[in-house]
Design brief:
alpha+beta; five-stranded antiparallel beta sheet; 12 helices; 22% strand
Length: 528
């Protein structure tokens, strides 16, 4: 018999593989989002520290400058030169001090100012003096009569941390001492401490092109005034400004709204990855003169995320293939078992159908109302398909219809098998046939859902029983006659033996009479 396999394996494996694939994709996406968010949060936290650390660096350097000025204002030579307004002597005494602190502490500016805020001496540039100082730190020191400090944008377009110290001699204010340092070293310190790259962006509205270009030349930098329409790059820890950042800044230069500078920026550059943001650059006067573009190097984090993603993906794919392999072989076994069971069932079904179709009995299945649910064969003139769905009463004589309906109802009520005999004479014939009908319940659990009817033709058996009864009658009559004759013979032989006994002779039939009496008694007992 041909083996038939129900293909359940792929019906399960394909949806399972799809579901696992979707689950893997969702897991990977979720993991990537969560790890990216973690990297972003950690990096933004690091970037946020820049502003705080930038302020701390300013305060520490300002305290250092204040300490130097505190020592300078006590120097007797400087005091004497200042009081006599001897610029040459003041320069001579302060020049060596300035050279020393410039080399060791990166101090780039050293001033002496009169009470009217006019510069008396620039130690770092002696040839220039006599100009009025228009700076916020200077105004604040004059106004408050105490030390003022802050970063200020100089005329050359460079940011300088300035400390202006009111100089008092014998309790009398005689002028102001100012020290300053370029803040480039602060950027370098922040880069080393936090691992970030910084870029100073200054609005052109606060700059004079000629002076800014002069300042860049003085610092040994390339002046690119026309690179962006609205701002310039004053300083950067990048060896070369990344093209992505340059393009982004070019886009920002066409935007009037400065809110864009608060957005985070992902910056791939030279196989390095940076995550950046913009911090406002506020000078000592509280003006927003530009921005500090801060970018944290997240190359290692990105590489770690990629490695983690690859490992997770390979692990998940391995687990998925192991699961699919397990289910493939497991379902294959189930599929083979189902195929064998199915073919055995089909074989049994074919055998059962053959048995039912060739069975001499009529086998039916009916519901409680007598509707035929199944029938193995029908009488001539009606097919099985035509009979199924009809009522059983349509196929039996009227005189037995009530009997079979009542019996079916009784089977449904009691759950017990019932049987009865009927005599049927087919239409158009004088032949009488005997049939015995047995009805039993079909149960599903405890519920009776149908009744099975088996109708067997017992005509031949009835005819044999009738012939047997007739023969038994004839045999009884024959036995009766035979027994009577035997009894007469026995009586005659008994009389002869009596006469012989009276004559004193030996009895001739005594043994024979005993034997016949025994046989007759046994036959009589058997007949009774």
């Amino acid at each position: 018999m041909k083996i038939v396999k129900e293909k359940i394996k792929w019906r399960i494996l394909i949806p399972l593989a799809s579901a696992l694939g979707v689950l893997l994709a969702v897991s990977m996406l979720t993991t990537h989002i969560l790890h990216t968010r973690r990297i972003n949060n950690q990096t933004q936290k690091r970037l946020s520290e820049v502003k705080k650390l930038f302020k701390m660096e300013q305060d520490e350097d300002a305290q250092l400058l204040k300490g130097f000025i505190s020592l300078l204002q006590k120097d007797n030579d400087l005091r004497e030169a200042w009081l006599t307004k001897d610029r040459k002597a003041l320069l001579e005494f302060s020049k060596s001090i300035f050279d020393n602190i410039r080399q060791q502490h990166k101090i780039t500016h050293f001033y002496f100012h009169d009470l009217d805020s006019v510069c008396f001496l620039r130690v770092h540039n002696p040839s220039k003096h006599g100009d009025y100082i228009e700076r916020f730190t200077m105004h604040r020191a004059v106004r408050d009569a105490k030390t003022a400090y802050g970063i200020e944008l100089g005329p050359l377009g460079t940011f300088t941390l300035r400390v202006v110290y009111p100089w008092k001699i014998d309790g009398k204010l005689v002028g102001y001492i100012e020290l300053g340092e370029e803040i480039e070293h602060i950027n370098s310190d922040l880069k080393e401490t936090l691992g970030v790259e910084l870029c100073l962006i200054i609005n052109k509205s606060y700059l004079d092109r000629a002076k800014w270009e002069e300042g860049m030349k003085m610092l040994g930098r390339e002046a690119q005034w026309d690179q962006f329409p609205n701002f310039v790059i004053s300083g950067s820890t990048f060896a070369k400004l990344p093209p992505v950042l340059s393009n982004y800044l070019e886009e920002l230069s066409n935007c009037d709204d400065k809110e864009h500078l608060s957005h985070a920026l992902k910056l791939p550059s030279n196989n390095r990855y940076y995550l950046g943001r913009f911090l406002p650059l506020i000078d000592a006067g509280g003006r927003d003169v530009g921005d500090i573009a801060v970018h944290a190097d997240i190359t290692e984090e990105v590489a770690g995320l990629r490695i983690f993603s690859v490992i997770l993906t390979l692990s998940c794919i391995t687990v998925i293939f192991l699961l699919l392999g397990f289910f493939y072989f497991y379902l294959g076994k189930i599929e083979n078992k189902l195929a064998n069971s199915y073919n055995n069932l089909q074989e049994s079904k074919e055998k059962m159908r053959s048995v039912l179709e060739t069975a001499p009995d009529y086998i039916l299945s009916v519901d409680r109302d007598g509707k035929i649910l199944f029938i193995n064969r029908t009488v001539q003139g009606t097919t099985v398909e035509q009979a199924i769905g009809t009522n059983i009463c349509n196929h039996i004589p009227p005189e037995y219809q009530d009997t079979i309906i009542n019996t079916i109802e009784q089977v449904f009520q009691t759950g017990q098998c019932q049987s009865f005999e009927t005599i049927v004479t087919p239409e158009g014939t004088n032949i009488r046939t005997w049939q015995v009908t047995r009805i039993g319940p079909v149960k599903h659990g405890q519920e009776i859902i149908a009744a099975t009817i088996i109708s067997t033709d017992i005509t031949y058996r009835k005819e044999v029983e009738e012939k047997l009864e007739k023969k038994m009658e004839e045999l009884g009559q024959f036995n009766k006659l035979a027994v009577g004759r035997e009894l007469q013979m026995i009586e005659m032989k008994k009389e002869i033996d009596n006469l012989l006994r009276e004559l004193g002779r030996e009895e001739k039939y005594r043994d024979e009479i005993e034997c016949i009496e025994n046989i007759a008694g046994a036959s009589k007992a058997k007949m009774s």
